[in-house]
Amino acid sequence: MEASFGLEAFPGVAFGQIPARALIGQFIDWWRGLEPATEDQREAHARLPGAIRLLDTVSALTEEQARRDRL
To answer: CB 3.0-4.6 Å disulfide test: which of 44, 49, 69, 71 passes with 4?
Structure first.
């Protein structure tokens, strides 16, 4: 998305340091607000719903595993 649309979501923050919920929120904002104009942008935009679902699933699984480890 950043390369296709020339955006920078979290300047100065390493990708691995971005909280999943913040990243999901950014992806949702982009999916709702961006209007793709090129084929590259349309392709990147079309991948957002899958990325959102995947991040949400992994985030939920990680939270569940953390809860189990505390018990």
So the answer is: 44
* Type of residue at 18: I
The CA distance from 18 to 10, in Å, is 8
pTM of the model: 0.84
- In the structure encoding, which two tokens stand for residue 8, read together? 């920078």
The rounded distance, in Å, linking the Cα atoms of 56 and 51 is 8
Neighbours of 55 (CB within 10 A): 15
Helices and strands, number each (H, E), in the chain: 3, 0
Q: Which two tokens stand for residue 11?
A: 């300047």
